[in-house]
Amino acid sequence: MTPSQRKLHSLSLALICSGWIFPQNAAANIGESFGFGSRAAALASAVTAEAQKQDGYASFYNPALMPFGSETFTLSWGVIAMEPRFKPIENVVLANTYMAEATQIGSVDLNYRTTFGNFFGLTWRSESSAKWAAGLTAFLPLLQTAFMDTGEAFAPEYTLDRARTQRPQFNFAAARILLPNFSVGAGLQVAFSMTAKADISLQTDLAKPSNMRFTTSLAPKAVPYLGMLYAPEGKQGISGGLTLRFPSTSEAHMDLTSAVNLPATGSYFPFAYNSQSALYYDPLTIQLGAKLPWSAEQQTFLQLEHQAWRNFKTPVMTLTRDPQGAILSDSRNPEYEYRNILVPRVGHEASFGGTLVRLGYGYRPSILARLSTGAGNRIDPSRHMLQTGLGWEFRECFGTKTLCDLDLHAAYQHLARQHIDKTPADEAGSPTGNKVGSPGYDVGGKIYGGGVSLTLKI
To answer: Whole-prediction pTM value?
Structure first.
């Protein structure tokens, strides 16, 4: 392939990819990352068994929570903002002769977007003796409708932080009380898969126009989750809850067919690619929680989650050459080994003169089975999640006899420091080269912010 052909080939791929990545839509689990609503977030999201004091986001945490309550409608709205700050990674290899013409050394792009958006939650309860309930929970970003960036395939990349919380999320659920103290529920989380096709004709003769046709379709799919709850009557006694979430993958597939006419040489240069990517992946998750009321003013929440990340699909594009096209290389993306993890969470709520004070803590281990010292640089340090918040309950709201709650919270996530030393040789095993990320770097950082929620009970 001549240098001019390589340039045209790279340009056409860049045009397609830039048009493909950004318009997509997929599910993102904002609830697992930061929590839905300020009350639950301040309690480290350990509310799988909270049946007494509910807001409108119960349909996400455990659909079996929804029937417990005296109000017909519970409506919640809130705002959250979380800012990531990672330790700089400087003076490392960004590209080498394995993937480019020459070695490039510089600083890694760690300018990840702030998570800033709205929460909406609604729960409806029937007034009949057969206590039914239904609800929905949604997150809508405010900085953009949706954003997707798979990140770099070889350069250092924080696996779960680039764009996972930059997308809308929708959950729908229904539940029923089967026994006086026992309820079950089921919900659906909405995800999407995308299929796209692009045909390009590139002309090097300035008298002739180049043209392109791009078609895409989004197909929604629903992933189920189930919940159960045991809640004793009144505010005393231990409550227990269980939520089972099935794995969800939002995928993208694209077929690219292109051709370049080179009249100077009299040649016609065709090439074709198929590409696919797992844009988002939410693991199989089992959440087991309990609420321990110590008195009318104080209660503790405990929760343990099993998250099955072993089958995690890294969000990176994979290009496969069409045998009928030109002879071009396929993608050879680095492979990683992931592991299942246990995530403990604990929260405590106490009332002081009408003001509710909340504290929460959670610990999420890394999903990577080992540090990325070989080919590839996926990063996911273990993180300590610290939350706190305040809440007030009012018997009047907006000049009416409507019960309402106002909740505030602040959150801080500390990403544990790690040092990564890259092994000798490049990704192809050549002893004269250096891997991307060489000679090594430190990782870690913080994510901080907070939010506010307002709940109306009608």
So the answer is: 0.84
